[in-house]
Amino acid sequence: MKKLFFPLLGVTFVLSAVAHYAHWNTTFQFIVAAICVVFVAGFLGQATESVAHYAGQRLGGFLNATFGNAAELIIAIFLVKEGLFDMVKASLTGSIIGNLLLVLGASALAGGLKFKEQKFNIHLAGQNSTLMLLGVVALFIPAVFVKSEHLSEDDTLTLSLIIAGVMIVAYVGWLIYSMITHKSMLEDHVETNPDHGETAKWSRGMSIFFLVLATVMVAFVSEWLVGSVEVFSEKFGFSELFVGAFIVAIIGNAAEHSAAIMLAMKNKIGAAVEIAVGSSLQIALFVAPVLIFVSLLFERHMNILFSTIEIAAIAVAVLITSSVSRDGQTTWYEGKLLLLVYVVLGVAFFFV
Amino acid sequence: MKKLFFPLLGVTFVLSAVAHYAHWNTTFQFIVAAICVVFVAGFLGQATESVAHYAGQRLGGFLNATFGNAAELIIAIFLVKEGLFDMVKASLTGSIIGNLLLVLGASALAGGLKFKEQKFNIHLAGQNSTLMLLGVVALFIPAVFVKSEHLSEDDTLTLSLIIAGVMIVAYVGWLIYSMITHKSMLEDHVETNPDHGETAKWSRGMSIFFLVLATVMVAFVSEWLVGSVEVFSEKFGFSELFVGAFIVAIIGNAAEHSAAIMLAMKNKIGAAVEIAVGSSLQIALFVAPVLIFVSLLFERHMNILFSTIEIAAIAVAVLITSSVSRDGQTTWYEGKLLLLVYVVLGVAFFFV
Amino acid sequence: MKKLFFPLLGVTFVLSAVAHYAHWNTTFQFIVAAICVVFVAGFLGQATESVAHYAGQRLGGFLNATFGNAAELIIAIFLVKEGLFDMVKASLTGSIIGNLLLVLGASALAGGLKFKEQKFNIHLAGQNSTLMLLGVVALFIPAVFVKSEHLSEDDTLTLSLIIAGVMIVAYVGWLIYSMITHKSMLEDHVETNPDHGETAKWSRGMSIFFLVLATVMVAFVSEWLVGSVEVFSEKFGFSELFVGAFIVAIIGNAAEHSAAIMLAMKNKIGAAVEIAVGSSLQIALFVAPVLIFVSLLFERHMNILFSTIEIAAIAVAVLITSSVSRDGQTTWYEGKLLLLVYVVLGVAFFFV
């Protein structure tokens, strides 16, 4: 599998490009781009890890956090540019609940079948809960106020921008807090860092080059994927919401999924939690607000109003994840519960 | 009292039967059946306990969980058969909030007046909270999706069946988890098992016979009770909802009520929590979904949509119980708080 | 500053009186009364502390709890008398969220910049969370029931009175529990009591006299302030809601604000939590219900129905505060998060 990675990456990338520019069958376009995105996301993940190896743990964590969601951010920017705000919000929703329920659930289940209990830093668990709650609040408050009080569109946009700004301030504060001022309080044991003691695959310069290359490739494939999603979803009768929240989100997070599960099976549940919860926090507190500011560059501006069912889904995912993770340990049954809640949400979205 | 138990059981049972089949005054029918239900529920409880004595703790726990809610399940099946879905949902709601607030509240208050602090397994407290939250999610998600997105009746029923299936899977997983794979992690000290060291009242064969007999009697009395409830509630101007959620629920849970309070006063709060929370979990995650499948056997099919006030009441009961029990200890004041929330809900339902 | 306190108190009080009775410019009336309220609140705080010094810790705590919110209660009674129920509810909402988010947030941030972690009694943290949740439930339940079930105005008032009665019972129970039966369980170390070892500024008789005097002054200034708020808020285009929930609430809680921040900077975060959370609990569970009963003395009666956005704001403040404080410790970042949520709510209320 490892030997075939780069050939397959190359083949699927070229095939996707040809399918897109030669206007081949849309279903084929979608499928080949969806497969390709898994490979480029994996490539991006490896490049990020390799750079993190040279840059040290602290900066590495920051890079991981910043590049890890690059695929989502780039996909979303293309959607924002085309004014497909509902699709953007659906895919953000899908990423958040996918990370919290699917990635964390599968990790806890896989790890829990091997180890009776898996423990991680209890302070981090508490802080994660609070931050996830902040993300819910930032979506819930504008929705309630705009609906109950019939705010004008201009006021809604201003409110959205201010809340987006607050979220970015909160996220930057979190980076300072968790990586500088209270780093040691929130750390697991050393062995949770998967890179520890491993030698790097690539040189420093090569790593940086691959990071840039992977990001560019992700950008291209994402655009092709988005182009075919709409036609594809119509063909199969899936709602835009279901495609955005589940199909696109699962594909876009493929790299995180496999990494987190593998870490959990090595009894490094703390690292798996950091990937799953950390990634969903970044989407809620950084990617989503940045997209609102990015939309100011284009003709139509995106506000922060998510639909009732999206907010409900995120709130449910956050509450159940908090309840499961609050005690700083996970078991197979808790993983199963998270997956079951994911199934419930998936089915509900499917029927919309 | 103990001596009079079986004579009174017999007398009220016969009287209920005569009153029902001879079409006596409806108020009298209701009262005598309501009294009788307390005795047959008590009889069922004793038979269950006695069987559990022979079958061992693990299987005993399972039997207790399965037969403990027999009265509710049987009452509910008759109501489902008659298409009285609103009454069914009201009585399920009433059972859940009655167990969480009234039974647990009265136990914590009674126990807390005798003992300053009563501790129970903190892992169990956390898991209970998560599972109760799952029950709320399973009611909340379909309600939100159906209301916001105007799902068709067919889609609503399919969604209901899938969610009901998920809940049963979650409940079966919980039995495996709490009774097999993680039994020791969730256990209290040995002395919380009330049967420990006691000799059985009845022989093994007698116990099984009484279990079957009691279940049959519960079935009959429940049907008679349900028959008179509607007329009775009209007469006194009580809403169907109030009767279902409070009067029927209190009567139907009489056996659990007295058992839990007596255990708490013996400083066995862990067992009281297991009865109160365990029973409400079984209703939310097993009885309710089973009823949805049972309704497929009849002409009209029941969906999983509870009314806004029912979901609100369950959510409130779950949140306050979680908050009170999360630290694995109870005091008199926490019991009083649960009872006060029960009063608030009771009054609110009364005015509907 | 200390030397100037009483002269400034006198000057602003006289100036406020003259401005009010001579019908000077309304903006000037508002500003001078707003400044004066800060001084009289401070005076009331000092008098209360001094009485507490003589009365002992237990009774002192009770007096502090009872007189600490005197300003809010008195302002509110005048508003109730004039039938300005929306303004009353807005200012109660503002006091609750202001204490939980602004006072506690600023304390945790200020204390956290000086001390890495600040710990307080973890049992108290849990109990506070439960009680705050009770306050939310008491507002949420009637709102949901009245809206979904279209209760009549009479039923709504009866429901309001019963719930108000329940809340007062809960609050009195809390005083007995936290000050008598479980006092020691909920206490911090001795040094958290700010009066310990300090000599009193005033004699016993003088302290009582000043307490009465300060309360009377608060009553007068509050009435003048309320008189000018309406005109003032129209002039600047602020909504009544924003003025009630933010401007009046910040002014009315000035004394608590400064005391709590100073205590936190002396590493007495437990005392700061007690002021912030204790004060908001008293408003939710005692001041608000008392006002409902007080309104029976006047022509128009106030019910317990808060608006959707007020309940949403209180629920959000309670959830985030619970999540932050549940572990019995605070850091600078947690303080910052609380302040950011306060900003989000403030901005949202501003746009209404």
Number of strands of chain A: 2
What is the subunit arrangement here? homotrimer
From the spread of the alpha carbons, the general shape of chain A counts as globular
Which whole number gives the mean pLDDT of chain A? Answer: 85
CATH topology of chain A: A middle domain of Talin 1
Q: Spatial order of the strands in the main sheet of chain A?
A: 1-2
Q: What is the CATH homology-level superfamily of chain A? A: NCX, central ion-binding region
Tally the helices of chain A: what do you get? Answer: 13
User: Helix-strand pattern of chain A, N to C?
Assistant: HHHHHEHHHHHHHEH
Helix content of chain A: over 70%
Q: Stretches of chain A where pLDDT falls below 50 for ≥5 residues?
A: 190-196
Strand content of chain A: under 5%
* Global Rg of chain A: 20 Å
Largest sheet of chain A: 2 strands, antiparallel
Q: Tell me the name of the CATH class of chain A.
A: Mainly Alpha
Largest protein-protein interface = A-B, 30 and 34 residues
In the CATH hierarchy, the architecture of chain A is Up-down Bundle
Give the termini separation of chain A.
38 Å
Q: Pairing-aware structural class of the strands and helices of chain A?
A: mainly alpha
Count of spatially separate domains of chain A: 1
Question: Which key features would you list for this structure?
Answer:
A middle domain of Talin 1, globular, 352 residues, mainly alpha, 2 strands, two-stranded antiparallel ribbon, homotrimer, 13 helices, transmembrane helix (chains A, B, C)
Note down, in words, how this protein is organized.
Chains A, B, C: It comes from Cohnella thailandensis. The structure is a homotrimer of 352-residue chains. Chain A is mainly alpha-helical. Chain A has one domain: NCX, central ion-binding region (A middle domain of Talin 1, Up-down Bundle), CATH 1.20.1420.30. Chain A is 79% helix and 1% strand. Chain A is built from 13 helices and two strands; from the N terminus they run αααααβαααααααβα. Chain A has a two-stranded antiparallel sheet with strand order 1-2. In chain A, 58% of the residues are buried. About 2% of the residues of chain A have low confidence. Chains A and B meet through α12 and α13 of A and α5 and α6 of B.
